[in-house]
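My current task is to audit a protein record that another person submitted. Alongside the sequence sits a line of tokens, each denoting a local backbone shape. Please read both lines and tell me whether the tokens look consistent with the sequence. Do not assume that whoever made the record got everything right. Thanks in advance; the entry in question is below.
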Amino acid sequence: MRLSTVILPIDRWRDEGRDKWRRAEDLGFHTAFTYDHLSWRTFRDGPWFGAVPTLTAAAAVTDRLRLGTLVTSPNFRHPVTLAKDLISLDDVSNGRFTLGIGAGGTGFDATALGQDPWTPRERADRFGEFVPLLDRLLTEGSVSYGGNFYSAHEARNIPGCVQRPRLPFAVAATGPRGLKLAARHGQAWVTTGDPKLYETGTPEQSVQAIRGQVSRLADACAEIGRDVAELDKILLTGFTPDKGRPLESLDAFVDFAGRHAELGFTDIVIHWPIPDSDFAADPKVFERIAMEAMAQLR
């Protein structure tokens, strides 16, 4: 199992932003992700910077740390322009970038461009077209395509990704259509658990629900003749009934991570502490978890 973190893009780069990404590498995190939103939840009225420029800057001040989004979505992205940014980011990072990608939701991103929020079916329809087209754009030198939602005309992406055949996709999905996309196009699968259990469920119910998601992912892989073991399985924490309790102590985290390792997860992602927020945590405990927890899980 590997341990990664999410650094929200809320700090000015030369104040605290740069230091956090460097510290993430020093602490030995496998990957440092950020959220690809225009604004997000309780942080809407405060500073919030763009994911691609932030990750590009992070690539320039780190050497070993993998970088990624959790997650990019079609809410305000187009595959053609996104592909150009991703190839550039993969180049600047020398092949250290992973694209976390999902169908999007109903938050602020869903209406920031002036459109009405898409229904769940519309989001799934768009995602089903978005991912395969992005796959082509990142692997082929020239792409033309005409779909129901997205088009490309002789879109050039030369020289392509540093990582071959393209940079990895970590597909966030729990529904049947999204799981099929993860099975076909993903190098990893991402879940936050079952959102219906967040407020009133128990940790035990959450583990059972996630076990069901893993089983359905395996079924989706089997349908196309793929071994589910080929996919990394990533749990983004903070959205299960456990909430912030796994970061209260090293022992609490090891217990939490161990229960999910038994489900087959290869990666656990924890949020960088943010005071006075849902992601508040003791920085000393957080750093101890980063440095010591994985050794106890091997």
Observations:
- The mean pLDDT is 97.
- The helical segments are 13-26, 51-61, 79-92, 120-139, 176-185, 203-223, 250-261, 283-297.
